[in-house]
Amino acid sequence: MAKWGEGDPRWIVEERPDATNVNNWHWTEKNATPWSKERLQQLFDDFKIVQSDIECAVDAVDKCTGEATVNNRKGKLIFFYEWELVLKWSGRLLKNSKLSHKGKLTIPNLSEENSLEDVELTVTIDESNDESETLKQFMYNVGRERVRQQLGVYIKELKEEYSKNLILPKKSDDGSGGALKDANNAKNAAQQKAASGVTSSSSSINSSSNSKSSSVGCKLDVRTLSMCEEFHCNANDLYNALTKPDMVTAFTRAPAKVDAVRGGEFVLYGGNVLGKFEELVPEKKIQQSWRLKNWSSGHYSHVVIELEETSSSTMMTLKQTGIPASEYDAMRTNWHRYYWHSIKQTFGFGSSISDAL
Length: 357
Known about the structure:
- This protein has 357 residues and is of the alpha+beta class.
- The protein is built from seven helices and 13 strands.
- Helix content is 33%, strand content 32%.
- A hairpin with a 2-residue loop joins strand 2 (47-51) and strand 3 (54-73).
- It is elongated, with a radius of gyration of 28 Å.
- Mean pLDDT is 79; it is low at 1-26, 174-181, 194-217 and 351-357.
């Protein structure tokens, strides 16, 4: 294998801190669900809200369901979290210290899709009377804002905790890289000077060899991916979700270019996913030339999506050929995460995920 500064530059191996994910280009993912459940429990453990002559406290996190993941794509962190929480609370008027009233505070939509101010918090009381209604009103006016602040702490700490080591330093960020670069500048300059001396003689060789080089290429190791997914909608709705610009923009959560005609182009996820529509049969079939931006220049995979509507749902089958072998595992994961799961979450087409080879 060539050393730095020698041989074909396409095969140079250099030491760099992001060597396993150069320039942080590939999708990488961390599961933040276990940490999130534990942290949310801690944030509301013995959490008290006291003001004037009223004291309320969160007695327990009665329900904590959902998930949280953190993704890195091309150096950009993307946080996904979706939680439903139910907090048991109790309160009392300090003038009547022996009498306590109980209730629940429900948070159905703690998600990256909603700003913290838009997160819904519903307050209920177990038994209604004058005192309990006073406490309920206190939790509505004061308690909800305090709980919202704790949720803000969770979101802030999630981003701090799971940003660590997910984006690796680039070669240009590595202090040692400057010394290596300087050490090779003189050598590279000398090589370029020597090369310039033979340019005229090599031009005639290049002209005769160009015709031969066109028939020589690198063989790319590729694989084929097949999967099946059920969506709780009709075939027309799913077809539109995959071909209508506004619907694609909605589930990708980013501006999308989609020209769903034969030969029309699509560009998604900030230009990282791109290709052309090769064949379109409404409600039945979508055929595409599909690639990631960082794949070898000119290399496209071939994607065929077929839809079959049943009495209660639509079955989607996907076959993708020509996937670079190094991208196969990530490709399977990311179809689920960034297409099927996101479509279901955005449009309410169901939540179950299954695949078949």
